[in-house]
Amino acid sequence: MKKILFASTALVAASMMSAGAAQAADKIKLDVGGFSKWWVVGVWQSSAYQNATTGGGPLTGNVGLIGNSTNGSGQKANVDVKGDNEIWFSGSTALDNGLKVGVFVSLEAGGHTDITTDVIDASFAWIEGGFGKVIAGTAPNGTALTHVQAPDAANGTLGGSIIGTNFAVARPSSVMGMNQIAGYSSSTNTTAFIADDKAEKVTYVAPSFYGLTLGASYIPNVLRHDSRGTPNNRAEAWGGTALYANTFGPVGVKASAGYVWVDTTAAGAATGVNAITAQMYGTQVSYAGFTLGGSAQITHQDNTRVYQGGAGLTNPLLAASGDTRAGVLTYSASKNGQALDFGGVAYDMSLQYASGPYAVSFGYYHSEVNGIRNRSAVALSSSNGKQDTIDLYQASGKYNLGPGVDALATVGYIDYKDQRKGTMGLSDAAFENSGWAAMTGLSLTF
């Protein structure tokens, strides 16, 4: 799945036509695979923040699942068990004319405890030949699948850890991050473009040429597929991506670049929002067991004087509640009714060393997102001219116990700051949280 990229419907149609009336020698038979990961997590976070959210304060709906576990005094739980489990069903067959076709379905298998996760995480079919590979379904978009990120010994990418995905130290609900989606903000901290979630789409990957793979993406509507109906607002998205992977003697090199454009004209006409764009870059260099890597995402919203609430100027795509999903980012409920001037940047970097069954890494993730600006009468005078920021420092380790069995350990520190910190007087503590988390567990693949 690492080299799956997106394309237009026309390419899919051409592929189907080239298949003709060919018959497969055998029907597709499904293989079963997947993974099961479980961690015991300990958390120590700001007591000032916890006390500030007592009694139905402004941030009682924060997304950290440990943070959501409160007692009567408002104090957060310090220990929890977290899991991530999927069962995969996949199969393929070769047609008489040489084309290959296949199917993939992933089933969520518990561990999230958020009662919102779709049972079927992804489902798609693909066809492959000399022209490349075409995929249609609910796989992540091609720029996300090919995106090169900072290495992480225990989790694959730095922002993909329990700490990085906000399941440990609680993120204040007013702190915006890259790719933040209303109702699905646990996947905020990443430089990959994941804002479309699993919206239905078409994907194309061209044949690799001297290590270079090119592709394109088309998403008819970036609204999440869980909507179940026809979206009320058009939000087409197009994207292109390039991945280069090669070795030069003992040195390995990977690099990726992606671009996504989301048309929000139909949904955002009242707000003056025309389009949202995102650029993603990443690279890794490896030598003698060491891998140094990093990545970045730069997001921009054209005509960025956006209003939520107030005078009826509400953008359905940028809603702070409900089941709609923005092309790139949305705004938290606490910023409704304010003028927003939007853009953001995120980057990560880390160094990993792997030898035999061992792997260790240390990395850093940072994001800063523009929010409130004093651009109109409805803006808060306390906007402070700053940005919401997230900083994550994380050390991870892995030890392979046998085929498909890894012991994992991670220790990290994360700091969340709302741009209004320092301007809200006695309520300042509710706009910032930070803390340590340590976890250990097992990763089983089958």
Which helices and strands, and how do they pair?
Elements: H1 9-19, E1 31-45, H2 47-52, H3 65-68, E2 79-94, E3 100-108, E4 120-129, E5 132-137, H4 142-146, E6 201-205, E7 212-219, E8 237-248, E9 251-263, H5 265-268, E10 275-287, E11 290-307, E12 339-355, E13 358-370, E14 387-402, E15 405-417, E16 432-445
Antiparallel strand pairs: 1-2, 1-16, 2-3, 3-4, 4-5, 5-6, 6-7, 7-8, 8-9, 9-10, 10-11, 11-12, 12-13, 13-14, 14-15, 15-16
Can you give keywords for this protein?
disordered N terminus; 16-stranded antiparallel barrel; 5 helices; 446 residues; globular; mainly beta
Concise structural overview:
By secondary structure, this protein is mainly beta. 7% of the residues lie in helices and 44% in strands.
**Count of DSSP strands:** 16
- How large is the count of helical segments? 5
Distance between the termini: 16 Å
- Give the CA-based shape: globular
**Quick check: average pLDDT?**
74
Strand order of the largest sheet: 1-2-3-4-5-6-7-8-9-10-11-12-13-14-15-16
* Sheet with the most strands, sense and barrel status: 16 strands, antiparallel, barrel
Structure, described:
The chain is built from five helices and 16 strands. It is mainly beta and 446 residues long. It has a domain at 40-82 and 147-197 and 230-445.
